[in-house]
Write a structure and sequence with these properties.
Elements (H helix, E strand, L loop, with lengths): L1 H20 L7 H18 L5 H30 L3 H21 L37 H18 L1 H11 L1 H6 L4 H28 L10 H11 L7 H22 L5 H43 L2
Helix pairs in contact: 1-5, 1-8, 1-9, 1-10, 2-3, 2-4, 2-8, 2-9, 3-4, 3-8, 5-6, 6-8, 9-10, 10-11
C-alpha cells in the first residue's frame, strides 16, 4: 500500500522540482492532477473503441497534455505578464478543481453513479494493471515504475544534457542567462510544462490504475503533498523516490492508525508535519553545529600564533 501511494507522489513532487530548478515556485500540481484525471476519463467519450496498449498510452497522454498546458499557463503569465507564478498556479489549481467537479457532476456524469457522482468506468482494455498481483507487491501498479523511471530520467537530463544545464543556469541567475543568449522564456515555460505533464500523468494513473473512474476520490491532496516531498528532497529528482516512499508510508499508516488506535485521519498530516519540521531543523543545524565546534579547535592555534607574534 505504501508503494501504491508513493507512485503519484513521485510525479507530483517532480511537478514542483522541475520548475524549481528554473527558479520558480509552482504549487499548482493539484490542479494539473485533477485535469489529468479528467482527460484520462474523458478521452473515451470523444474516441470510442480505444483498447489495448495504444489506448492506454493515449488516455495517459491526454492527462499529461492537459496538465502540461495548465501549469505552462502559469509560467507564461509569469514571463510575459509579470504575474507571480506561486499565486497564479495556486489560483489555477482552484479553477481546475471547480472545473473538474462541474464536468464530473454534470456533462460527464454516469447515470449509474447515484451516491457519488462519477464518470463512466474506464474500459478493461484501458486500465493499468498491477506489476505482480500474485506476489507481495499486491495491487502496486505500473505507475510506480513510471514514476521511478521519470525521476531517474529527470536527474540525468538536468545533470548531463546541455538543455538541463541551461535550465539550471536560468534557475541560478535568469538575468545572466539572458545576457549570454539562453532562451530563458522558452526554458522556464518548458520546465513548467514538463512539471505539469508529470502531475497530469499522476492524475491519469489514479484513474487508469486505481479508481477506474473520475470522481471526488481523485481530489485527495496528492498535489499538495508533492510540494512537501519536493522541498524535503531539495528539488533533486533522484532523492524524490525515497521521500515519496516515506510519505506514502505515512499515508498508508493513516487507515491503520484509525483502526488500531482510534486516531483521527488527520494524524497523517501531523506525522508529515513533524517529519518536515525535523528534516528542516536538521538541515539548518548541520552548518551551525559545525560552526559551534570549530572555535574549540581553533582557539589553541590562534593563541599560539598570537604568542609568537607578540614581542
Amino acid at each position: 500500500n505504501s508503494l501504491q501511494r508513493a507512485a503519484p507522489l513521485m510525479l507530483t513532487a517532480l511537478a514542483v522540482a522541475l520548475p524549481a530548478r528554473a527558479g520558480l515556485t509552482v504549487i499548482g500540481g493539484e490542479g494539473a492532477l485533477v485535469l489529468g484525471a479528467l482527460g484520462c476519463a474523458g478521452l473515451p467519450y470523444l474516441l470510442s473503441g480505444l483498447q489495448g496498449t495504444v489506448g492506454s498510452a493515449m488516455v495517459l497522454g491526454a492527462g499529461a497534455l492537459l496538465g502540461a498546458a495548465w501549469v505552462a499557463a502559469a509560467g507564461a503569465l509569469r514571463q510575459w505578464r509579470g504575474v507571480n507564478e506561486t499565486i497564479s498556479s495556486l489560483l489555477l489549481a482552484y479553477i481546475a478543481i471547480a472545473l473538474f467537479k462541474h464536468v464530473v457532476e454534470g456533462p460527464m456524469r454516469d447515470p449509474a453513479s447515484l451516491n457519488k457522482p462519477s464518470t463512466r468506468p474506464l474500459g478493461e482494455g484501458l486500465r493499468i494493471g498491477a506489476i505482480a498481483p500474485d506476489s507481495l507487491l499486491g495491487d502496486v501498479h505500473w505507475g510506480l515504475v513510471i514514476g521511478v523511471l521519470l525521476c531517474l530520467g529527470a536527474g540525468l537530463w538536468l545533470g548531463f544534457t546541455a538543455s538541463g544545464f541551461a535550465l539550471r543556469v536560468v534557475g541560478g541567475n535568469a538575468r545572466a542567462a539572458r545576457l549570454v543568449g539562453l532562451p530563458t522564456d522558452r526554458l522556464i515555460v518548458g520546465a513548467c510544462a514538463l512539471g505539469g505533464a508529470c502531475a497530469g500523468l499522476a492524475g491519469a494513473l489514479e484513474v487508469a490504475a486505481v479508481h477506474h473512474t473520475a470522481n471526488a476520490s481523485v481530489i485527495a491532496g496528492l498535489g499538495y503533498t508533492g510540494i512537501l516531498g519536493s522541498f524535503v528532497a531539495r528539488h533533486n529528482p533522484w532523492a524524490i523516490p525515497p521521500v515519496a516512499l516515506l510519505f506514502g508510508g505515512f499515508a498508508a499508516a493513516g487507515s491503520l492508525l484509525q483502526r488500531r488506535l482510534g486516531l483521527p485521519d488527520a494524524s497523517v498530516l501531523v506525522l508529515q508535519g513533524f517529519a518536515f519540521v525535523f528534516i528542516l531543523a536538521a538541515e539548518g543545524l548541520r552548518g551551525r553545529l559545525f560552526q559551534l565546534a570549530l572555535p574549540s579547535f581553533e582557539k589553541p592555534r590562534l593563541v599560539a600564533v598570537q604568542g609568537r607574534a607578540l614581542p
